[in-house]
Structure formats: C-alpha cells, structure tokens
Amino acid sequence: MANLLQSPLCSAWFAFVLLASVVSTAPVEASVEDAHSFAMEAAVPHVKGGFNIRSESWGGVLKPGKRKVIRHQLFRGNEYWFWLGSSKEAAGLTLKVYDRKGRPVYVETVSGKYWVATRV
Questions:
Q1: How far is CA 36 from CA 66, 67, 86, 104, 120, in A?
Q2: Of 41, 62, 88, 114, which one has the fewest beta carbons inside 10 Å?
Q3: What Å distances lie between residue 27 and 13, 18, 87, CA to CA?
C-alpha cells in the first residue's frame, strides 16, 4: 500500500511509484488492512510535522517477485512521502519513485519491520 503526503502545490510533474515484494504477503483481506495500518503508523510523525495525507491510496496483494506501478501527479518544488506496508515482517519491500522519463527520484528511503517509505 502506498500513501502520498503533500505540501503546497506548484508546477505539475508525474511520478511513477514502483512497489515490489520479495516474499508473499498472504492474500487475505485482513493482511491488506494490517499493511495499511503499518504504513499509516509510519506516516504519523510526518503528519504531526505538517504533511497532509491524500485520500487516494493503493491497497492490494503483491505476489512474490511481482511489481506494481502506480501513477501519481506531483507538483514541482514540493516534498512528498510514499509508504508501503506489509502484514509480513520479512516481506522484503522495495519502493521506488521515477519521473516521467523513467529516472529514479528520491531524497531518502527509510524502513521498519513492516513498512518502507521514500521521500521525494
């Protein structure tokens, strides 16, 4: 699951978020809800710091070794965070953000037992 936080808006550009899971996150509905909860818990310090959570998010199951591309419109000059959570501690999550030309863009990536986050 990836959630996007945003600052005030400027010029538009597009980002593609690549989500990958190395091991399965059991295809059970409760697992998706748990993964979302872990991602939201990871976002709390940033929300307290002034970021806003966008209402849209992706929630689903990734099979081992599979990837998911999600397109978001971002605005140049702003700072964004993306989170991906898993209900499995050893899921081996990867989260990457690319510009419209396919070049990776990020400032930092951090992770916990059940989530990974990337700042753009």
A1: 19, 18, 8, 24, 20
A2: 41
A3: 33, 20, 10
